[in-house]
DNA sequence: GTAGGGTTAG
């Protein structure tokens, strides 16, 4: 158009800027900006709004803000444009400031700040804003708002508020669009209710069912340790003619991993490019290395590390460290830990896993050394915490804590369980505990880990036979894993623990993770 | 003609 000499008007410029933004062509964008100035359209509100977005998305926040300030008649769209740019560029502080300066925030503004909270994983903050919006702003939520709010609930594994959102959208007859469908499936999956996730999945209208909804189901099942069900679902999907993307395939590998299906995993991994036109990416290699490592094929895992077209990242070294722990391989463990400490010095989990490896090999001087390193470098173990939700109340537990109103009963329950546990073969794994206290004190602490307290509370606070659902902020500890398996049998209860990585369904003395985690 | 939402991996 330009070369034909057709003059661009104020209606064409916004689309051109949008195209520059989408293709990240900042050079062209600046040229077009020049044309705007030359042709005298630099006061048009639409033109300026689209320029705000262009500059912000290309990282030129200062210029973007300058253009924003120069808009003669700023509308709510101008404010929202900048607001969303701040949110997407992780400048949440600036976003909040801008939001507070707005005289009349509309639904898009609210959606932007709520999405911003979710992005930072400040789930409670997101829900708090959501409530404030409903109560005080006179703006009512739309499907965008609800999908962010659902994501906040899912991220926190908090089914109750999510369910209320579900009820709300039914009452308002909003119907399930693609995003709400995924949001609900993921909510139920992440809060431990796979049956409900499946029910929602089944009622998503066909045209709203996307590869993302399928992936959420398959990934959810994998996280719950239902590896074979996940693969069944994958086959069902293929039968429907839906093509997997790279995320679906990560979940498929993860499903094989948790079901111990090494051969299937290898088959999927080596044929994914041919069958599904998805080239193995870093994350697929990391999964495959994890699978091989867990299965004890450490040499094969290392070979893949050395031959893959990527530099080993934290996920890869983490997988190797985990494998080293399971198979008690001190050499590999220390190598992986060293790499990880370089890559992620701020995480305490690496030191702890390595200490566990030393401990299980009886290398107490190694354990002591790590304890010293942690002390000197000020790496603090994040305190383990567990939660149990009853009705809409959340009960929190910390190791050895007695402050819960029913503390006495909880400790009595654990005491009562100690004899049947011992008879069932439970031996405290004192060596896995790193607290800097005497052996006897250690056994006591171990027996009062937060997840054990939460389970004991579940036993006394829910009716006989009801499933017990616990959440934990770290990986479940090995000793607790063993103990809870036995408790599920002794007390005839299904116990579901969501740890930082996945779900453990304990039933009749076994765990759905197959002790593979 | 300008602004906003979803799935994965240690």
Automatic annotation (TrEMBL):
One Pfam family it belongs to: DYW_deaminase
Gene3D superfamilies linked to this entry: Tetratricopeptide repeat domain (1.25.40.10)
InterPro entries: DYW_dom, E2_motif, E_motif, PPR_At4g14850-like_plant, PPR_rpt, TPR-like_helical_dom_sf
GO biological process: RNA modification
Domain of life (superkingdom): Eukaryota
PPR repeats: 75-109, 210-244
A GO MF term: RNA binding
Keyword Repeat: yes
Ranges for domain DYW: 425-517
Keyword annotations of the record: Repeat
Similarity section: Belongs to the PPR family. PCMP-H subfamily.
Name of the protein this chain belongs to: DYW domain-containing protein
Species whose genome carries this gene: Linum tenue
